[in-house]
Design goal:
By secondary structure, the protein is an alpha+beta fold. It has eight helices and nine strands.
Length: 246
């Protein structure tokens, strides 16, 4: 609700909040409700994706009911639609170019501040990228301590063995590479659009391609060897299809 309507939701916020994903046959539909307003997304007659926002009580957004307020209500509705579509496209567009990958993996120097590169495949870097994916849709960002706990867990370590200094060093690397930024007047960080793209690229490529491929081992049986060859060909075709092939 915070992400789509840009309104802070706390325990004291009145109203009912529900998000439902309904599937009728093979056509999914998405319904997001906030007080007396709703965002609905579905496939219109199976031809195109339709996203619509209906506001049944203007006072939900501190706007009067006079006709002169219609432009303000239209802007709220269109903004909610745009943010929803942006959120949905964020997790799919994770491809990065060779130059961008080289920039992330190489050391960087910004205003006399130096940071090591974020090497793909390094266990510590992969833990950082997977943790960033967890906060990709957090509108208020994430604090140092919460991020540290997730990174430690992803490295199969206890948080007390992952020092505050190490976490500060990693956050500094991510910030100087432009993957995160500090929230003004706070001790929280948030993911940048580049950071979301790079983090998902690292996480998806590693978990869906590198790790499964490295676990495949040829065997002596001819029948199983043929199955392995078909699997290897299917994996190569998949990488080619999503443009992740070498």
């Amino acid at each position: 609700m915070q992400l789509i309507f840009t309104r802070r939701v706390t325990r004291r916020t009145l109203g009912r909040f529900r998000t439902r994903v309904l599937t009728e046959g093979v056509v999914p539909s998405l319904h997001v409700e906030h007080k007396k307003s709703k965002v609905k997304q579905y496939h219109k007659e199976g031809q195109a994706l339709r996203t619509e926002t209906t506001i049944n009580d203007t006072y939900d957004f501190a706007i009067g009911r006079a006709l002169r307020n219609l432009p303000a209500l239209r802007e709220i509705g269109f903004a909610a639609n745009r943010r929803l579509l942006h959120v949905e496209s964020l997790s799919h567009d994770c491809l990065i170019g060779e130059d961008q990958l080289r920039t992330v993996t190489a050391p960087v120097c910004i205003h006399d501040q130096r940071a090591a590169g974020l090497r793909f495949g390094d266990p510590r870097v992969q833990a950082l990228m997977h943790a960033l994916c967890l906060f990709a849709l957090a509108p208020s960002g994430f604090p140092h301590r919460e991020f540290r706990d997730h990174v430690a867990q992803l490295q199969r370590r206890r948080p007390d063995t992952y020092s505050t200094g190490s976490m500060t060093y990693d956050l500094r690397r991510l910030r100087l590479h432009g993957l995160i930024e500090r929230v003004p007047r706070s001790h929280r960080y948030r993911l940048t659009p580049t950071g979301a793209q790079v983090a998902m690229f690292y996480a998806r490529l590693y978990t869906r391609a590198l790790r499964p491929a490295s676990s495949l081992q040829p065997v002596a049986s001819t029948r199983v060897q043929h199955a392995f060859d078909r699997l290897d060909a299917a994996l190569a075709g998949f990488l080619q299809e999503v443009k992740l092939a070498a």
